[in-house]
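Title: Comparing notes on inverse folding

I've been comparing how different people in this forum approach sequence design from structure. To keep things fair, I'm posting one structure and asking everyone to reply with a full sequence. Here's the target:
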């Protein structure tokens, strides 16, 4: 009991310092990583709630695009506005906070930011006036739940749903890297969340025409050295590639899935892994960074290459030749 009281007091002190620091700012930018995941989105919403800010006074932003269908469904169903901004837009804000990310995670250069709250290990020391980085914790949403409870902030059903989903996805339903704090936050949020909304988020709608693409991808799949590859050919929209990368990771014996498709003159490659192997972002940058845009995080990454650039630097950007080249480049990067 004494330990719990002490932890709560410590969290309350952190909240007080955080609120005091941001109080003078008219506009605060809450930044997430490119292609933010549920943990980042929920944590950003929680920070804005903790600061008592409106959407206009503290927008939630990313330099990238939300591609994963479940994450897009999360923002739509829970009505969480996420702005896609350019690096120069940072100058329009008085202060910058980062959740579930650190300055070193971005290709865009950051000076010292005002706040970093994250559960990922530091690649380099995070340059921030205030920082709370807990690599042993399973989710940043758990840290934010601690803050909200310590400050006696009312957690609405919408916010509880977002935070619960953030913890759930980052810990694989508490089966990966979950700590006592994650378990306690999950237990606290579970009865306060909208489980009907969660079910809708977890099962995003799949257009009927996408089933034909999926059938083709299944027919073309190949499993090599724990990596399942599939080239879908032309697709209607790039999110399908990411969605099917998630699907193919369920194949028995697969530790990685590499799914590709072409849309609007570009080759989109989505990569997923089981989370305890090499960082997906590093492998994808090594495999495709010299021919296009490539990057990501530990368990998910993507590359986007203009077909004319692929043809000029690699070879035929269609059919079997394309899949063969993707397989060869990825396996070489994975083994190097």
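Reply #1:
Here's my take.
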């Amino acid at each position: 009991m004494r330990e719990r009281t002490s932890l709560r007091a410590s969290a309350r002190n952190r909240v007080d310092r955080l609120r005091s620091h941001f109080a003078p700012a008219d506009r605060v930018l809450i930044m997430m990583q490119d292609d933010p995941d549920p943990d980042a989105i929920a944590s950003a919403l929680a920070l804005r709630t903790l600061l008592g800010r409106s959407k206009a006074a503290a927008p939630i932003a990313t330099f990238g695009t939300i591609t994963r269908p479940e994450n897009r469904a999360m923002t739509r169903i829970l009505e969480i506005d996420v702005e896609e901004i350019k690096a120069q837009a940072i100058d329009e804000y008085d202060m910058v906070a980062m959740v579930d990310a650190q300055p070193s995670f971005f290709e865009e250069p950051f000076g010292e930011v005002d706040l970093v709250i994250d559960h990922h290990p530091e690649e380099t020391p995070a340059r921030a006036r205030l920082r709370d980085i807990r690599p042993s914790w399973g989710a940043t949403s758990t840290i934010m739940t601690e803050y909200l409870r310590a400050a006696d902030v009312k957690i609405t059903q919408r916010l509880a749903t977002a935070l619960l989903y953030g913890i759930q996805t980052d810990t694989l339903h508490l089966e990966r890297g979950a700590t006592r704090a994650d378990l306690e936050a999950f237990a606290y949020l579970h009865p306060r969340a909208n489980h009907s909304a969660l079910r809708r988020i977890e099962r995003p709608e799949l257009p009927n025409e996408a089933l034909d693409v999926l059938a083709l991808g299944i027919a073309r799949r190949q499993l090599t050295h724990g990596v399942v590859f599939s080239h879908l050919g032309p697709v209607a929209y790039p999110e399908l590639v990411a969605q099917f990368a998630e699907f193919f990771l369920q194949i028995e014996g697969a530790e990685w899935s590499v799914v590709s498709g072409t849309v609007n003159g570009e080759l989109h490659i989505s990569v997923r892994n089981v989370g305890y192997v090499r960082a997906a972002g590093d492998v994808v940058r090594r495999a495709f960074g010299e021919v296009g845009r490539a990057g990501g995080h530990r368990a998910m990454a993507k590359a986007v290459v203009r077909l004319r650039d692929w043809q000029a630097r690699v070879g035929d950007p269609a059919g079997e030749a394309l899949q063969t080249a993707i397989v060869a480049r990825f396996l070489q990067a994975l083994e190097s």
